[in-house]
Amino acid sequence: MTNMLYRPNRRALLRGTAAAGAAALMGTLPGRLMAQDAPAKPAEIIVRAWGGSWVEALKKGVSDPFTAATGIQVRHDLTEDNEIQPKVWAAVAQGRVPPIHINWDTTTNATKSALRGVTEDLSDLSNLAGTTDLAKPVGLDGYPIVNTYGYVYVLAYRPEAFPDGAPTSWKAMLDPKFRGRIALYNDGIGFHFPAQVAGGGKLEDIPANMQAAWDFIAQVKEQQPLLGEDPDFTAWFQNGEIDLACTISTNAREAKKNGVDLAWTVPEEGAKFDTDGLWIPKGLPENELYWAKEYINFAISKDAQQVWCDGLGLPGVVPGLTPPADLVDDPSYPDTPEEMSHLIRISTKVQVENESEWFGKFKEIMQG
Amino acid sequence: MSEPGPKQDFRYPLHWRLMDGVERLADIVWPRSMARHTGWLFIAPALLLVGLLVLGLVQIADSSLRVLDTATFLPSEDWSLTNYEKALGTKVYLTVAWRSVSAAALTTVLTLILAFAYAYALVRVRKAWIRKALLITLFLPFFIGQVVRAYGWLIILGNSGMVNEALGLIGVAPMRLLFNYGAVIFGLVQYMLPFAVLLLVPALTAIPEETETAAGSLGASWPRIFWHVLLPMAKPGLIGAGLVVFTLTLTDFAVPAMLGGGSQDFIANAIYDQFFRTADQGLGAALALMLVAAGSILVGLVFMVFGAGTLAMGGRK
User: Fold this and answer.
1) Is there a domain that residue B41 lies in?
2) Which CATH number characterizes residue B157's domain?
3) In whole angstroms, what is the distance from residue A185 CA to residue A224 CA?
């Protein structure tokens, strides 16, 4: 029924949001930001981001209000997170100024950068005091990264292909009628852990014994799955190429908003829960480092989180956020311990140390 | 009659003066005594570029000998052959390597067959408008670029694409035309065709039409003319085109990535994964060097057996 309501146009909405955000930012900025001795403001800061609805949400929730409050323009660099990583690493190793001020990254990737020693410490951000445990990177000293929200790799499906209701298990992928009509990420990310359960294995055996996962993935391979990245899933659903996919709920939600007949579920085996975060590469001039930190500090304020995470449809790291209306009680928006209990969370350390091997094993099965 | 003397009012033209000035300047910058080295001067920028590439290869070789430490995500201080052992001992890399080589060979054969017919038509056709139409048809997609062209095939061959819609009109149910080995080969052949035609046209133009007429007048059928006259005389063009198509296909990234549906990776895709997905630059570098080596060896073998074709620029080999 929302279509019946008055809906301001996008420009007006952005103006209003930015103004409201700016006001909120003024309220949440620590005294030092407003102090006379704050370092010189750079003309802009560059934030690496994912495109589409991801960057739109960041712009609306964080970047525009930050610009309105500080006058610093925020440029979003849409280089893929995996591709910016070697550039940042090379810049730090060569003592050059890094190509970005802030990297919006998966926690696993960000942890690799932290272990390599290319991240600035963010422990002194004042708004960290108001965040949940989710904001703290596990297994690392201090805050080389600040996690900003969690997300779930759901089982997205076309309701038309499931007239009897949502699939209850990842094993639905093995139904012969879906041969050639299922999709996974091309490195299997998000699927390894539920596959371990669906294959009859135990999560406690990760990473020592993941044979159950590989066996299940080998069965899925017989179904000739398509392998791709986020934009591929939307295109494949839209073009009627697939009926089932393991993808991040944000992508499924965005596709649904764009008119694709799509639904999603967390099957009985569970679904992978992970986090994304923000971090700053070493090598920035002092004043730019200061303002980059202020950007992240604002990003974890309650007001910014509410708008940003609303856009993403994901639970943030500040208590008391209101879920978007369409995601109340949705398993992809876990905001209660009961909902979290259905999800699979493996430590970042284990993922970082084994990810390369898992990707390789997945590729070996799929390319065979 | 006396010889006419030089006109006293002759004015040295301005552009002559300019040319004299340029010559004097050239004498200062590159004295005439250096004339025998002028050829090297012209080739110097190209040598510099090749030198930079070699420097890059040396750095990649250095990376390939360092193992990633997943506790620090830094490369090891010491050199070892671990990355090469891993590359040669892991089934998935052998699978994609074999797929790359076999697909390159298949694409080369198919492309040469199609390109030969196209180039022959282009050279022999008498009407200028048909030649122009053939050229436009060939080069229009050439200017669009590989990624956009591959995306075009996704639209045309998709489950809801034009081809399946056309098949639907005659009662054929939608079928999966994309995301398999055949789709990758199809995309590659379509991408490589203009390259091959470009390299074959000069070779076919150099074959006088009278040679075919002469063979025909001596009683040879067209297939015999093709086999005994055209093909041997076009061999340099076929070898040149074959080498270019083979090496470009062997190292291709976009077509297998876009039309293969993630399950038809070539070695370039595996290299990308190591550099950008798992941050293992050492293994990626080892795979990259092995690809360079494999490509060079295969091309070297062709040079040894068949010569370099039109790429030899008139040389024997």
Assistant:
1) no
2) 1.10.3720.10
3) 13
Q: Do B273 and A80 touch (CB under 8 A)?
A: no
Residue B74, in any domain of the structure? no
Q: For residue range A294-315, list pLDDT tens digits in order.
A: 999 999 999 999 999 999 999 9
Query: By the 8 A CB rule, do A128 and A148 touch?
Result: no
Residue A8: count other Cβ atoms within 10 Å of its Cβ. 11
Res. B45: pLDDT tops 70: yes
Q: Is A242 on the interface with B (CB under 8 A)?
A: no
For the residues of A129-144, what is the DSSP string, one character each? GGS-GGGSPTTSSS-S
What is the average pLDDT value for chain B, to the nearest integer? 91
Q: Cα–Cα distance between B279 and B159 in angstroms, integer?
A: 35
- Mean pLDDT across A233-240: 85
pLDDT of B212-260, one tens digit each? 999 999 999 999 999 999 999 999 999 999 999 999 999 999 999 999 9
* Chain B touched by A180 (CB under 8 Å): yes
SS3 A22: helix
Number of domains in chain B: 1
Q: Give residue-wise pLDDT tens across range A331-340.
A: 999 988 888 9
For residue A187, give the nearest of B73, B161, B277 by CB distance: B277
Tokens 């009659």, located at residue: B1
Domains (range + CATH), chain A: 2-150+274-327 (3.40.190.10), 153-273+341-367 (3.40.190.10)
Q: Is residue B238 part of a domain?
A: yes
ipTM of the complex: 0.82
Instruction: Please report the number of interchain residue pairs, chain A to chain B, with beta-carbon separation below 8 angstroms.
Output: 81
User: Is residue B2 in a domain?
Assistant: no
Question: Which of B60, B69, B73 is the mutation pick for testing A, counting most A CBs within 10 A?
Answer: B73
Which of the listed ranges A85-99, B7-21, B302-316 does the model predict with the highest average pLDDT?
A: A85-99
